[in-house]
Amino acid sequence: MPPTRQDPTRRGWTHASELARVIIDTSPFAAMAFDVDGRIIFWSSGAERMFGWKAEELLGLPFPTQSIPEDEISSSRERIQRTIEGAVISGERVRRLARDGRELILEIHGTALREESARYDYSAVARGV
Predict the structure, then answer these.
(1) Could you tell me which of 31, 64, 93, 123 has the fewest CB atoms within 10 Å of its CB?
(2) CB 19 within 8 A of CB 1
(3) Count of domains for the chain
(4) Does residue 61 form part of some domain?
(5) In which band, very low, low, confident or very high, does the pLDDT at 11 lie, cut at 50, 70 and 90?
(6) CA-CA distances (angstroms) from residue 23 to 29, 73, 118?
(7) Is 46 part of any domain?
(8) Residue 58 located in a structural domain
């Protein structure tokens, strides 16, 4: 007898959230989320491995400024603003610095999430290229 397909909604949102967390945490990509004020509200295990900072060191704080090379600060701010305004960032290349000073060449993907309060959170996923 073939296996029966289970209705995924019966398992609930808690299971779906846990599953999403496991998928994100085992991904080689760096997943991050920020509130509208630029404070980190999510920092994945992949982000920890890529950048060298643990989530508990950064949650509630802005992205480490020492990780953005001086010549990239303006374009970074502009990209964040475009994201908050609704642009989807798909594959833009950036340079960042890991905590230990290594230069990282990354491809950034990001989007905003509008909440009922009209405030925006935004997320980004980065992968090394």
Answers:
(1) 93
(2) no
(3) 1
(4) yes
(5) low
(6) 11, 31, 29
(7) yes
(8) yes
